[in-house]
Design goal:
With about 500 residues, this protein is α/β, with parallel strands linked by helices. It has 15 helices and 14 strands. The chain has an 8-stranded mixed sheet with strand order 1-4-8-5-11-12-13-14, sandwiched between helices. A two-stranded antiparallel ribbon has the order 2-3. Strands 6-7 form a two-stranded parallel ribbon.
Length: about 500
């Protein structure tokens, strides 16, 4: 039976399913003395055997979320102080933009009705227009590879490019672009879709690395009137692009340099990037990609970057750099960043989480996963691209299948992959036959765990087997030379630069 005071309170509450009304009713039942199931409520414990841990790392994220909700927090401009990493800071000015009004049709069936390519240049184009060197970026790097008058801040390859340096701007006209799908000035998910004047978000089509280089080639030809570039060079995802440029336009490039890249992505690196994407997409603020003008998924982006950063170095380098040192030995252990390596990763993720667009991270990393210069993959891509063009012209109707998670969970099998290693190599050899007469330098790093060195050896082996008239050179940095892992191309500049400079000038 309800007490008089409870009845009086209920009479003042709105009729219906008011949450407060339901709470009052439920509470009254608990406290009803006529109930046979009455049990006195146990007081909440206010102390235990040990004090509860504090979580300043979570407090910091909550404060950041609150600041972002008020719109008064921007990306950080602080630099990484725990190591020699170059800056990947958010580049918003100091570059030029090429605008294409022609549609580009994509390897996985979509299209962009128009697009922009942001770029920076160093050096001068000669009269013959024969000295252009196209530098391709990695996943998170911007187009700002080198300081220049319009952006005097140091670039990510600052001491690699310049007068008398490994890519000599006294000899070469150096161009670096932001990739299609990126967020440093080129068209990407954060760009405006001309069809509805809204940001693409996840209406942006799936991209391939080959799509990126086709956009680059259109820009190079149209902007500079160049039919053949001197060299296509890049590291990491840039190494993929350098090969893809040669594959797409073998007669339009003299030399190809791939550093710490691959000719096709393998399961290990795909798994790593999948994990990063899942962490990012699990952030509620991601909102299936439609977070623009709202709170960005900064927590998911931070954690994704931390996972990625772990793969950029080798175990020995982590050991040498941090060991088991804790940030503050005088304090008790904590679940928040405690070891020095943890504080470094936390700082690296925190710095990056608002500087790179989360959707761009998803799209560009997926393009890396899809990369495959094998015959079957490229044949399917050409077919899908042709169909996209027919769809655009209205000659065929759309029949895009819906994605679905398999009804039965994955079961461990004793059988091997459908395609054997031998069959995969034959397919890759057939696909890369387009590079049979090219001069190619492949550079691998033994300590690299993200792009293991056998993947660079695979490129060189296939090219050498296919070789007809071109020069194929392979250069490998052993653990005795560099333990920097995947980041070797950023940190061991002399060891990487010497063979690059020699190859460019041969």
């Amino acid at each position: 039976m309800l007490s008089a005071s409870t009845k009086k309170l209920l009479s003042r509450l709105p009729i219906g399913r008011s949450p407060l009304r339901k709470i009052v009713l439920h509470s009254s039942k608990l406290f009803s003395t006529s109930s046979k199931s009455y049990k006195p409520l146990q007081p909440e414990k206010t102390s235990g055997s040990n004090p509860a841990l504090t979580f300043p790392c979570l407090d910091k994220l909550e404060r950041k979320n609150e600041q972002l909700s008020k719109g008064n927090l921007k990306s950080s401009s602080t630099s990484l102080e725990s190591g020699p990493e170059p800056s990947y800071g958010n580049v918003k000015t100091g570059f030029h933009v090429y605008k294409s009004k022609k549609p580009i049709f994509l390897d996985y069936g979509g299209h962009l009705p128009e697009y922009e390519i942001a770029y920076e240049t160093w050096g001068h184009l000669n009269k013959e227009k024969s000295n252009l060197v196209l530098v391709h970026t990695g996943l998170s790097a911007s187009l700002h590879a080198k300081s220049q008058p319009e952006n005097p801040k140091n670039g990510w390859w600052e001491n690699f490019i310049g007068p008398g340096k490994y890519i000599d701007t006294d000899k070469y006209f150096v161009v670096c672009t932001n990739v299609l799908g990126g967020c440093y000035g080129s068209t990407g998910p954060s760009s405006i879709d001309p069809a509805n004047n809204e940001q693409y978000a996840t209406r942006f089509p799936i991209l391939s690395v080959n799509d990126m280089v086709r956009a680059q080639r259109e820009f190079v030809k149209d902007q500079f009137g160049i039919n053949k570039i001197h060299a296509s060079i890049g590291a990491s995802m840039g190494g993929m692009q350098s090969l893809a440029y040669g594959w797409e336009f073998p007669d339009e490039v003299e030399k190809i340099i791939s550093i710490s890249g691959c000719a096709r992505s393998h399961p290990y690196s795909i798994a790593l990037r999948h994990t990063q994407r899942q962490v990012l997409m699990s952030d509620p603020n991601w909102n299936r990609g439609f977070y623009y003008n709202k709170i960005p998924p900064h927590v998911g982006m931070k954690l994704a970057r931390e996972i990625a950063t772990v793969t950029y170095r080798s175990g020995p380098e982590w050991e040498y750099r941090f060991g088991r040192q804790r940030a503050d030995e005088s304090r008790p252990p904590a679940l928040c960043p405690d070891f020095l390596v943890e504080t470094y990763l936390d700082h690296a993720g925190e710095k990056f989480c608002l500087e790179y667009d989360a959707n761009s991270w998803l799209y560009v990393s997926k393009a890396m996963d899809l990369f495959d210069l094998g015959f079957k993959s490229r044949s399917k891509a050409l077919e899908a691209r042709s169909k996209a063009e027919l769809l655009y012209s209205g000659k065929v109707s759309s029949d895009i299948p819906k994605l679905a998670i398999p009804e039965t969970p994955y079961q461990e099998k004793s059988t091997k992959a459908i395609t054997t290693v031998e069959e995969g190599l034959l397919d890759l050899k057939k696909g890369m036959s387009r590079l049979a007469n090219k001069d190619v330098l492949v550079v691998g790093v033994e300590s690299d765990i993200l792009f293991p060195v056998w993947q660079q050896r695979e490129i060189a082996d296939v090219l050498m087997e296919n070789n007809v008239s071109g020069k194929v050179k392979y250069f490998e940095l052993g653990n005795d030379i560099s333990s920097y892992g995947h980041d070797t191309f950023l940190l061991s500049l002399n060891d990487i630069g010497k063979p690059v400079k020699k190859f460019l000038e041969e």
